[in-house]
Structure formats: C-alpha cells, structure tokens
Amino acid sequence: MTQNYIKENNLQTAMAEYQDNMGEERTLYDQYERELGTVTQVYNNTTGAGEQVYAVVKNPNEKADKVQEVTVLFRGSTGPDHFWEETADFWNDWAENDAVIAKRIMLQKDPSYQDKSTEQLKASARALKDIMEKYPNAKINVYGHSLGSMDAQYSMAALQADQVKRIQQAYIYNGPDIYRILSPEQRKVVDSIKTRIHNYADPDDPISMVGRDMVKGSIGSVGLVYYVDSTKEDFVNQHMTYGYQLDKNGKIKILSNTSTVIYNDYLLQMDNYTLLKEKLSEGGYTKEEQLFLDSEQAGIAAASISLMSTEGKSIIKSIRDEAVEDARKVFASRRQVPWGFILSPSEMENAYIEGGATYETTIGVIEKLLDPVVDKISQLEKDCIDLETQTKKGIQKKLETDKELAEKFRQWKKLT
Description:
The protein has twelve helices and eight strands. It is an alpha/beta fold. Strands 1-2-3-4-5-6-7-8 form an eight-stranded mixed beta sheet, with helices on both faces.
C-alpha cells in the first residue's frame, strides 16, 4: 500500500506526478481525493532524454485559448525499486541527469557564464514552452520533485521575459538548486519571479542539499528557499518527503533562521510593494501617493532590519552562552581525579591552578572576548528597534493630524 504524503495541497499536487497511468484524458486526484484536473498533454521521453512532463487543466473541453490556468507537473527520478521494469528511465534519470548535474553544480563554485544543463532539462523546457503556446492566455502553475524540481527550475529559466510573466506560482521539492549552472541571462529570468518560486529543501536529504548553502538561504538560489524541519527517515523516504511535517497552521514546518524566513518575508513584502507602486503609477504619483509609498517602503525596511538584528543577537548570544558553558565544564573538571591517580580532588585542583587553569584562563577569557560583542549587538538591536518605532510613530503622527490623508492610506493599503 502506498504511503501518504502530508496533507498539504501544493505538496500533494507535486507528488501526483508519480501516479501510475499518467496518460492524456486521465482525471487526476491527490491522495485525499481532491480533484486536480485532467491531463491534456504528456511529454514522455520525446527525444530520448527521459523527460516526463504533464499538463493538467480543470476543464479539458474548454477551448485552449479560453483556458485561464494550467498546472504543469515535472516528474522526478524513477526510483531504484523500478529499475528492472523501467531500466531506460532509471538510467536516463540517474546516470545521464542526476549524477551529471550534481557533479556540475558541485564543481561550479561560482555562478556560471554559460548554460551547463543536460538534454533532459532542455527537453523539459521545450515541453513547458509548447504547453504555454497551446494555452496562450493561461497562467501557469509549476510543480516538481527531485529531478522534476531541476527540470522545473531550468524550464522557467529558459523562458523569455514576456513568457515568464505568465508563471503564476511554482512549488518544487527536494531537488538540487541549479542556480549556479544557469547562464547569466537565465539567472536574470528566474530572479525576476523569485517570490513566485517556492523551493523546499530537506537538510537531512543529501540530494536536495546539492548546490545549497544554509547560511545564504535564498541568496544565490532559484526562488525563495525553505529549509524543512523534518523527522528522520531512511534515505529513500527522506528524499520522497515522508519526513515533512505540518505546523499548527497546516503549512509545511520549516526551520527558522535569518537567511531564510526573514529574508524571504522581506522579499515578499517588497514584491507586494512593487505591485502597489505599479497600481498607483497611472498618470504619475501625487504628493500624497508618493508619501504613502515612501512610508510603506520605510516601514518594510525598518521592520526587516529590526527582525534581523534581534535574530542576529540571539545567535551571537547563543554562541557566547555555549562557549561559557563549555568553559565551566572544563573549570569544574579540575577536581576530577583520573583513574589510577592517588591525589585528592583538592590536590588535583591545585595542580591545575599551578599549570595556569584558573577562572580567568577558562571562563574569564571567554567572557572577556565575547561579552563586548554581545553588548555591541544588543545596542545595535536596540537602535534598530528604536528606528522601527520612530518610523511608525512618525507616520502615525502625520495621519492623526490629517484624517483625509489617513482615509486615503487605508484605501491604498487595500490594493495590496
């Protein structure tokens, strides 16, 4: 019996790509009987490169130029358990693509100056373009897992600027990040829709961590990166997302750190700000509209800086506290008598002191080194919080004295 993935709609949609009999005219459901649509196009190893791409629409009887939304599924690697019945697929996926791309990513320490993809990635890109041509007025939702994630990343990067605007959202899971093997032009394309691409990686899955740096998070990656807070599974199940968990809000549980959550939130807010700016731009900005936009941008920046400073202080203080705790253990161990020694605990302690192991040289030296750093980052945090508070108060004071402006601010906020 097939094990169920967590009940999260986007993950369920992505993993539907692994269902059997994925032919045209098949009505597709997720594991919880939610209807996803009907498969209308199948690209299965069209040129021997091994790509498997599916187009899914809600109403297959609707004229192609009337279709408003298309879901595109990029299937991941054929599993080792299907080696004997799908040997060609297995070889194409693992030997010709997974291994080759992983090697290229790991050898490419800095972003490439040319396209270093494989034939399967290129075939997948052709499939996406073909789907977009068939449904010329449709918004496109992209999903992929594992190798399918890489196919999806490359396919979006290979679009033209006018085409990529039609990508409504993308959800990709446990695949290597291919950003550094894209050409400069392709990186610009995916960067232009960065906040629409949701790129999930499990730190306990070696495959999905290829090409990633947890410290950088979403920086220098395809889309917004989310590191999953997963449970421990065996190698295959970890990769197949069976370690994923849901948080209290029913969303995929992710790890929180400065490089991902706060940065991602900042990018999403700035994306909304850009859309708001476009909506107000018709006919040029009035002074009041410009004041509103300036206040929105200042608020976003101040809040993000404040959060980053708080998170930074938390990390540095944690490092300091751990170092002091380790030093305390060393300091306390001076009275421990090793087996076979005839000295008393006091004699052992005196011997250590004579050797220079004092409070000052163990705990004291750590406190002297790190406490000033904690004090500086604490002051920086206070300054950032004060800046955020002053920014909010300044805007609020202006609105309290101008009720008409305050009403306009409220109306403009509804545009986001």
